[in-house]
Structure formats: structure tokens, C-alpha cells
Amino acid sequence: MNILEQAVSKSDGILRILLALMMTLLVIDVTWQVLTRFILTQPSSFTEEVARFLLIWVSLLGGAYAYREHSHLGFDLLVRKLSQQKARWVFKLCCVLVAVFAISVLIIGGLNLVYLTWLLGQQSPVLDIPMAWVYIVLPLSGLLFLLYSVFFFFNAEQQFITQECIQ
């Protein structure tokens, strides 16, 4: 197993646990919000902000994990009509485009946002935590998208052999 496969394997395990933990916390938080609002008639002040921040993290990290598992939405009707070699070329092109997006928007743009909010000292209104901690998920998810797209690019041959066996 090479270094790239080890990195992907480790990130998969960590990401699965982290996503399960965050989803559990999100369910508990929203349940507590509903209970305090409608049963205790005294809404909790922090639950809405916690739910919003957890949803941001789950969405971005979950998007990276969905990309890894090939569970993201895709329009592959045209690709299925292509020959194996052309389909492999399109697959590699998509990997490059995902890597470019991950680097330019998520990593560079995300790091700029984190730096700016840290520099300005922006705090969340209720929890009073630095917003840079919330926004750090942008470059983190960008790194995951980049890792997975590089992994897919270099394992495109194996990807298509596996798909042939399934069909």
C-alpha cells in the first residue's frame, strides 16, 4: 500500500467517525432546541448557533466524503456512451477540475477567509467563539477533495477495471 492509499484510508476512517459524531451532536442539539422551545417554553439560546455551525461542517466534510464514495450527484449518461479510453480521459479531466476547484476556492479562498476573520477578531454572537474556527472547515474540506481527486486520478485504471467487473 503506497503513501497515497494510506492517507486516503486514514482520512476515510477519521472522516466517518467525525461525521457520525457531528450528526449525533446535531440531532441532540436540535432535539434539545425543540424541547426547550415547545415543551419548556423557554428556548435555549445557544442551540440554533450550534446547529448552524454543525450543519456547515457536516455539509462540507460530508461533501468530501460523498465525493470519495462516488455518492455525489453526477450526470453520466454521456460518459456511459463513450469508449473506455475516452471515459477514462473524461474521468481524469474531472479529477483535475475538482483539484483546481479545491485549491483555488476551498483551500486558498478558505484560508483567506479564516485569516481575515482571525485578523478582525470576529466572534460568533452567542457562543463567543472565533469565527475562524467555524470557517477552518473550508480549507480542511478542500484538502480532502484534493487528496481524493489526486487518488482518483492516479487510480483511474483500477477504477475502470472495477466498474467493468460490476457491469
Oligomer description: single chain
- H/E series: HHHHHHH
Number of domains: 1
- Going by helix content, strand content and strand pairing, the class is mainly alpha
How many helices? 7
Strand content: under 5%
What is the number of strand segments? 0
Distance between the termini: 26 Å
User: Main sheet?
Assistant: none
Show unreliable segments.
none
Radius of gyration: 20 Å
Helical content stands at over 70%
Shape from CA axes? elongated
Q: Could you report the average pLDDT, rounded to the nearest whole number? A: 91
Structural features, described:
It is built from seven helices and no strands. α1 (3-39) runs antiparallel to α2 (47-68) and α4 packs antiparallel against α6. Helices cover 80% and strands 0% of the residues. The chain has one domain. It is mainly α and 167 residues long. The protein has helices spanning 3-39, 47-68, 77-80, 84-120, 131-135, 137-154, 156-166. The mean pLDDT is 91. The chain crosses the membrane at residues 14-35, 50-68, 89-120, 132-154. The complex comprises the extracytoplasmic solute receptor protein and the two transmembrane proteins. Keywords: Cell inner membrane, Cell membrane, Membrane, Transmembrane, Transmembrane helix, Transport.
